[in-house]
Design a protein that fits this description.
The complex is a heterotrimer of chains A (379), B (241) and C (860). Chain A is mainly alpha-helical and 379 residues long. Chain A has helices at residues 2-32, 47-70, 78-102, 111-114, 121-144, 151-176, 188-216, 220-255, 262-266, 279-292, 295-299, 301-325, 334-337, 348-371; strands spanning 273-274, 277-278. Chain A contains 14 helices and 2 strands. A two-stranded antiparallel sheet of chain A has the order 1-2. In chain A, helix 1 (2-32) crosses helix 14 and helix 6 crosses helix 7. The longest helix of chain A has 36 residues, at 220-255. Chain A is globular and about 65 Å long. Chain A starts with a helix and ends in an 8-residue tail after the last helix. Chain B is 18% helix and 18% strand. The radius of gyration of chain B is 20 Å and the shape is globular. Chain B has one domain: Alpha-Beta Plaits (2-Layer Sandwich). The chains are: A mainly alpha (379), B alpha+beta (241), C alpha/beta (860). Chains in contact: A-B, A-C, B-C. Chains B and C meet through helix 1, strand 2, strand 3, helix 4 and strand 8 of B and helix 1, helix 2, helix 3, strand 3 and helix 4 of C.
Chain lengths: 379, 241, 860
């Protein structure tokens, strides 16, 4: 037990250091500007934005899962509900850290309230996630107080569920309405975002749970194994949808004669694409999907951990791939000052933004797990 | 209220870039950012080769994707059709830059005009440092700083916000032509109110069949191109088998 | 790969070509969207009012002040926008009829020059006595007083020792105040050695016009009235001269005239031309000869100027001699001689073989060009003539203007309009015996020697051979140079084979450089004097022609000087004169005191008064209404200063017909003028004209020497080892090689077709590059027999295979922190002159910069 305590202490120290580094990074970015990133006027959005998208969508995925017991009233999942809501909150806060450090002038954020632009998907995205955060926190507070199914509490659950459905569509449409970048254009991006959000949310929950039970040695796991197995089936279904969507996407990309899609053949960088193959999709989606089709893998703790970890990393990389592929060639006259294709690898500061966001998220998980009785369920 | 537009006569354009350099000067545009720019192309194979030049700038679209997407209305339309940016409201999300189909919006990745903050001196006592020069001249950020730009926009934009061509709104409001128009030695740029049928732009648009950049996107750009950079004559031919 | 390239190309095309929506549908939409606004009726600004912008407007914080730009030798009249004594913007002066209020890209870079932190802000002296490329001069700041005392002491030492001829003045960028320093001071001190930069500029360009129509100057071209413009290695919308004027009318010109550009690389002008003739470097004379041949055999010459066969029957048949008596000339001289001596066998097929151009294209160009007579132009630029043997190419290309009657004619080539500036007082009375004796020595550039005829205006030994002065100094031949002053020149960068200058300058015991920046020349100097910038800080004037006018445009100090600069051509010589007077030699100061203020009759008492009075003195006929002689009229100095430019009367066409300044007063196809000059030179050296030509590396012998003719190019380097001919060209952003310390230069460098921003590239045809295994962006070394440079490779279709084209300007190893990669040590990019050998067109004295050398290219 004392050994565990020691490890816990080390874990907190590690997170503390990561957060200190993150604060330093924030200060540095605030003073020196985003020239610290390996971005330019062609690759405009980079790793911090990719991390934001990934975490925000994951948070939505978690909220949607929480909706199963809380909105759809599938009682047997109630033991997961509080943890799911809390993870959604913590993950969303991580996302906010990433986006906060991505914005050039975060101090002007209040204009989102005072000068709203209702035709902007970014505005809607910001608005919805802000409200979502608020609603989730209130819902969590109600649950923590034991109020799981009052009218108010139920309403909060429904609202958060609906927001979690819309938010990914908004993130998708941030890209989907950029007529000028055909690789993004259309409603596909919204659907894709929703599916990937559900996928990474499920993966995160599964991975988290397996690690949590492993670390704490909490006996609850034995009782809940059938539930986790069911979850894993949902997981496999979502992965299946993502596989189908990805195949459709590949088919369109490789058949298209639109020059912008050329980058998918030409572009190579550190996010999984290599030699024209999308390894992040092959290893981060197709492989775990195939593994999940094997019942023994699905049922073993190790299988759950490996597949969910693969998918979690894979989704982040897929977000990065999509994000970068649409920006890798200069638009219009920018081709005069930049080469025809630009590759990207994050700078140390961008990695640190990622670390900061993760550290905030993990610290919240850790503290929440310790102090907020996340396994609670209504009697 | 007028609706400003620009006609660029490619036949008159000599591709000299005076527009872009004068723009940099007028608007205190920092290094790496091009409010006024160009698209060039070398076509053909030796000896049948030509080089083409299309001047570009913000298209001041009627249906501007940058304006549509901006979450805080920092990017907005003025009544006279100018697509304007207010850096005070800009949160630096760069969505406008991401959204612009014409590649005319740039982000201030760092504090602009960094060269002029430098304290390095080539010959001690014999030359000055960039910072010393700016201070001695009594200017802001660059020695040739144009304070008039500050009338409608911070004369030097801070880091963390985007910037782009404003059709020299600070000049237009004073009855002066945009700097690129005035500085064009070839008279290739014609500026005016497209709604006024007697304006030169309206007359030219009635005379030629203009093209605009990426017209199919439906943004309704208000930079119109007429004629061709190289209107070369050639001997008539029916080709051959 | 190919397919991918096509796809990228189609993306670029798509970007501009997407005009799916028709204009009609657009207009409908626009009207619908804005109709409410129309009904509500806002302000309706008058565009006419907008167009008049330029007058001081209520909202403007500063004031537009007149000045002059000398970024190139267009010498446009400018206005500078000044706020609180600070220059903020530059534009064309609308009062000039030459540049018509238009500007150009390079003029704006003047702002980055005047406020360049690397400008020398105070005099400096060298503290490392050792001189050389690898010797840091260790400059330290000194006072003006100390600097001037040292200079005066050195000059007095020469005077004391009776060796004033060992004093030398080197001139670079000048205004017409030049004679104060360049001529008067040198003469009164007592030296023959005032050496200008002219021969590295374009003297050969003046040679052809002089020995055909008796006009030693650059021409103006009546482009708006022209129907065919044949351009030889000139790039009027990008580089010298009257870039602003030609840019302003070019869109109309290309609509009205056919434009053919002869140049091995696709220039900015060629990009907009009807016909690009990418000729093999050095073969321009062959093309011109064939065009002349076609014009004559097809009977297309302009009879009202040239005359005709007495019986009207054309006897110009290929390979057949013509009887001189059969042809009656009007305003020309020696047409039949020219035919018999040169043209009769210069067929299109013959030219096609040499020029690398298709025969039918040559034929077509010749016929179409001649059909436009007399409203056609043969425009001789520096390209084909700043070559070994370029003098004759200059003649034969320009001679076409005689055949077509385009010379001095509507839509043709024009001479200068009359202007009325006044020369400074004569120095003769102030030249003492030492000075007179010193002045008689031979000049350091060895002009006039057998191998340097330098035949300016028909006088042997009258043209400067700038680049040879380095050898004169190195060999102490004809004399040792002990004290030298250079101003606004940078021969250690701007001359071919500059390594000779590095050694020559190192050898001069006392060298002064008047300069804005510590340049390569400064590196070898003992004293640096901080110069004013001509456009913002100097009193002076220049004259220039274009658009059928001549203007005299003023430069004046219009900004608060940031540091302690002094004017090169007036203030500094005055201050030296004062110091010399203190040392007992007051001739120069007394002479300068003769430059009295024409308004008050007051003699100058200090350098500032002197600078102003000298300018007022020289321009008094322009602004003093009582001395009015023509052109614009002013009511006095103040008004002239405010307007800043005087315009001549308009051009009178055909005034020179029959009254040219040649021996025969006619346009000479057989140049009696050249014959006299060459014979005079031969006589001086007790030899024959043939021997002169042999020594000077020309091929012509006998009578052919006196007619415009083709000479084979003389290009250094063995063809096997050095496979490429080096093609030098100029940049739109060059202010005479002085802008590479300006960031805007690099940020907009790609306005030169084929060039890249922030890079110095050599443009190679992709076919050649493939053979060499070179790709765009590769670091390459270009070497000739005399030197090498390194730069980036750029594959570009606009270059003739077998040649490599590179823009002049970069490759500074000094000049400033941005210009050099490492100041004093490593150049940024490569300097073209490092591969160009010091060779000459000896008849004009010009330094060669085109078709001068072959080079090899290696990947680094």
């Amino acid at each position: 037990m004392s050994e565990k305590k020691g490890l816990y202490g080390i874990w907190l120290v590690v997170l503390g250091i990561a957060i200190l580094i993150g604060l330093y990074t924030a200060l540095k970015i605030f003073i020196q500007g985003h020239g610290l990133f390996n971005t330019n006027d062609v690759i405009i959005w980079s790793l911090p934005l990719g991390v934001y998208i990934f975490l925000a969508l994951t948070s939505s995925g978690l909220t949607l899962l929480a909706g199963v017991p809380l909105v759809l009233m599938v009682k047997k999942y109630e033991p997961f509900a509080k943890r799911l809501v809390f993870l959604a909150i913590a993950t969303l806060l991580g996302a906010f850290v990433a986006i906060g450090l991505e914005l050039g002038s975060v101090e002007n954020m209040f204009w989102i309230l005072f000068s709203p632009n209702f035709s902007s998907p970014i505005w809607w995205m910001g608005f919805i996630y802000s409200v979502e955060l608020l609603v989730l926190i209130v819902k969590f507070w109600r649950m923590h107080k034991g109020d799981w199914h009052s009218g108010f509490s139920n309403a909060l659950g429904v609202i958060s569920f609906l927001l979690a459905l819309i938010a990914p569509l908004m993130i998708g449409s941030v890209f989907g309405i950029t007529e000028s970048r055909v690789t993004y254009f259309g409603s596909m991006m919204s659907v894709y975002s929703l599916v990937l959000g559900l996928l990474s949310g499920t993966a995160l929950f599964l991975l988290y749970s397996t690690i949590f039970h492993r670390v704490t040695g909490n006996g609850a796991v034995e009782r809940q194994t059938p539930l986790y197995n069911e979850f894993t089936v949902i997981f496999a279904y979502v992965a299946g949808i993502a596989v189908v969507l990805s195949l459709v996407k590949f088919a369109i990309e490789s058949a298209s004669t639109v020059p912008e899609f050329l980058v998918y053949h030409k572009f190579e960088h550190a996010f999984g694409a290599w030699q024209g193959f999308h390894f992040e999709v092959l290893l981060g989606l197709f492989l775990p999907f195939v593994l999940l089709l094997i019942p023994s893998v699905r049922k073993s703790m190790g299988g759950k951990a490996v597949t969910s970890a693969l998918i979690l990393v894979g989704t982040l990389m897929m977000h990065m791939e999509i994000l970068l592929a649409g920006q890798s060639h200069p638009v219009g006259p920018k081709a005069e000052q930049y080469p025809a294709f630009i590759s990207y690898f994050p700078s140390i500061w961008e990695w640190l933004v990622f670390v900061f966001a993760l550290a905030v998220m993990l610290l919240l998980y850790t503290l929440g797990e310790r102090y907020l009785k996340l396994a609670e369920a209504p009697q | 209220m007028p609706r400003y537009a620009m006609v660029i006569d490619l036949q008159r354009c000599v591709g000299c870039g005076a527009c872009s350099i004068a723009c940099r000067n007028e608007n205190n545009v920092p290094e790496g950012i091009y409010w006024s720019n160009k698209i060039t192309e070398t076509v053909g194979t030796f000896p049948n080769v030509r080089y083409h030049y299309i001047p570009t700038l913000c298209n001041h679209c009627e249906y501007a994707p940058c304006v549509r997407g901006c979450p805080t209305k920092a990017m907005h339309k003025l009544d006279n059709g100018i697509t304007m940016h207010d850096p005070k409201k800009c949160i630096g999300c760069k969505y406008c830059e991401f959204n612009c189909p014409y590649g005319v919006i740039y982000f201030n990745w760092k504090e602009p005009h960094q060269f002029w903050k430098n304290n390095k001196v080539l010959f001690k006592g014999g030359t000055s440092s960039p910072r010393e020069e700016v201070e001695k001249v009594g200017a802001e950020k660059t020695p040739y700083f144009n304070p008039e730009r500050g009338a409608t926009l911070p004369a030097n934009r801070p880091k963390g916000v985007v910037e782009k061509c404003t059709f020299c709104d600070h000049r237009v409001s004073k009855g002066l032509l945009p700097t690129c128009v005035e500085a064009c030695p070839a008279n290739a740029r014609i500026f005016g109110d497209i709604k006024d049928p007697d304006s030169d732009v309206a007359k030219l648009l009635g005379k030629f069949r203009p093209f605009r950049l990426r017209e199919q996107l439906g943004t309704n750009p208000h930079i119109f191109y007429i004629r061709d950079f190289n209107p070369a004559q050639y001997r008539p031919t029916k080709g051959g088998i | 790969m190919k397919n991918e390239k096509n796809k990228i190309q189609s993306f670029v095309n798509g970007f501009r070509g997407d005009f799916v929506m028709t204009r009609r549908s657009f207009m409908k939409k626009a009207t619908a969207a804005t109709s409410t606004a129309v009904v509500l009726g806002g302000l309706k600004p008058s565009l006419k009012a907008l167009a008049a912008a330029g007058e001081v407007s209520s909202g403007e914080m500063g004031e537009w002040k007149a000045s002059t730009c000398q970024g190139c030798t267009s010498w446009c009249s400018k206005q500078v926008y000044v706020i609180d004594g600070r220059a903020v913007k530059v534009r064309g002066n609308p009062n000039s009829k030459v540049n018509n209020g238009e500007g150009c890209p390079r003029s704006h870079l003047g702002l980055q020059q005047v406020y360049d932190p690397d400008r020398i802000k105070t005099p400096m002296k060298r503290t490392n006595p050792k001189k050389g490329r690898n010797e840091d001069p260790k400059f330290v700041p000194i006072s003006w007083d100390e600097a001037l005392n040292t200079i005066a002491d050195k000059i007095m030492e020469l005077r004391k020792n009776n060796e004033t001829h060992k004093y030398m003045l080197m001139r670079g960028r000048y205004s017409y105040m030049r004679d104060v320093l360049y001529d008067r001071m040198t003469k009164i001190i007592g030296s023959p050695n005032n050496i200008s930069h002219s021969a590295i500029c374009a003297e050969a360009e003046k040679f052809g016009p002089y020995y055909t129509e008796g006009y030693w100057n650059y021409r103006q071209y009546d482009v708006t009235n022209s129907r065919y413009i044949l351009i030889w290695g000139a790039d009027p919308v990008a580089a010298n001269r009257q870039v602003s004027y030609y840019s302003s009318v070019w869109g109309d010109v290309i609509g009205k005239a056919t434009i053919a550009v002869v140049e091995p690389r696709l220039s900015a002008t060629a990009a907009k031309a009807d016909i690009w003739l990418p000729i093999k470097p050095g073969q321009d004379g062959a093309l011109a000869a064939a065009i002349a041949h076609v014009i004559l055999t097809e009977g297309l010459w302009y009879r009202e100027f040239v005359g005709d066969f007495i019986d009207g029957q054309n006897r110009f048949v290929a390979d057949q001699e013509v009887n001189e008596e059969d042809f009656e000339e009007k305003y020309t001289h020696g047409l039949v001689k020219w035919w018999n001596l040169e043209l009769k066998d210069k067929t299109v097929a013959w030219a096609a073989e040499r020029t690398g151009l298709p025969a039918d294209q040559i034929q077509h160009v010749a016929v179409e060009y001649a059909k436009a007579t007399p409203h056609c132009i043969s425009w001789v630029g520096g390209g084909p003539v700043m070559q070994v043997r370029g003098a004759y190419t200059s003649m034969i290309c320009h001679a076409l203007n005689g055949l077509t009657g385009g010379v001095d004619n509507v839509g043709g080539t024009l001479q200068s309009n009359k202007e009325y500036t006044k020369k400074f007082p004569k120095p003769n009375d102030y030249m003492d015996d030492i000075a007179k004796k010193g002045k008689k020595h031979e000049k350091i550039d060895q002009r006039g020697r057998l191998e340097f005829p330098a035949l300016k205006k028909g006088k042997p030994g009258s043209a400067v051979v700038t680049n040879n002065a380095a050898d004169g100094i190195l060999n102490s031949d004809p004399m040792e140079i002990k004290v030298a002053i250079g101003y606004m020149n940078n021969f250690a960068f701007s001359c071919g084979q500059p390594e000779r200058w590095e050694r020559a300058l190192s050898k001069i015991p006392f060298l002064v450089h008047i300069t804005t920046n510590a340049s390569e020349f400064s590196w070898f100097s003992d004293i640096l004097l901080p110069d004013t910038h001509h456009m913002f800080e100097k009193w002076g004037y220049v004259k220039s022609i274009g658009n059928g006018y001549r203007h005299v445009t003023l430069m004046q100090p219009i900004v608060k000087p940031v540091w302690d600069y002094k004017i090169d051509e007036t203030e500094i010589p005055w201050l030296i004169a004062e110091k010399l007077a203190e040392r007992g030699f007051d001739n120069l100061l007394r002479h300068y005191k003769e430059y009295k203020d024409p308004e008050t009759g007051k003699a100058p008492t200090n350098e500032k008064e002197f600078a102003l009075y000298a300018l007022k003195y020289a321009t008094q006929n322009l602004w003093n209404p009582s001395q009015y002689k023509g052109g614009d009229k002013f009511n006095g100095w103040e008004e002239f200063l405010k307007i800043g430019v005087w315009n001549s009367d308009p051009y009178h066409y055909r005034e020179h017909w029959g009254n040219m300044k040649t021996k025969t007063k006619k346009f000479e196809f057989y140049s009696e003028t050249l014959k006299a000059a060459l014979e005079m030179h031969a006589e001086k050296h007790n030899t024959t004209v043939d021997h002169v030509l042999e020594v000077c590396q020309y091929q012509a012998r006998g009578e052919r020497a006196f007619v415009p003719h083709y000479e084979e190019p003389f290009i250094a380097g063995d063809e096997k080892e050095f496979q490429f001919i080096f093609v030098d060209h100029k940049s739109r952003l060059n202010r005479e090689g002085r802008t590479p310390n300006c960031s805007w230069y690099y940020e907009f460098k790609d306005v030169d077709p084929g060039d890249e921003i922030w890079e110095d590239v050599a443009k190679i045809n992709p076919l050649d590059a493939q053979k060499l295994g070179i790709e765009s962006g590769d670091e390459i070394k270009i070497s000739s027999e005399t030197g090498s440079l390194t730069c980036k490779a750029k594959l570009w279709e606009g270059v003739r295979p077998g040649t490599v084209a590179k823009c002049y300007g970069q490759g500074h190893w000094a000049y400033g922190t941005l210009a050099a990669k490492e100041f004093g040590k490593v150049p940024r990019g490569g300097s073209n002159n490092d591969v160009i050998p010091a060779v000459y067109d000896r008849l004009s004295g010009s330094t060669v910069r085109h078709a001068g050398t072959r080079v090899k290219i290696e990947k680094v």
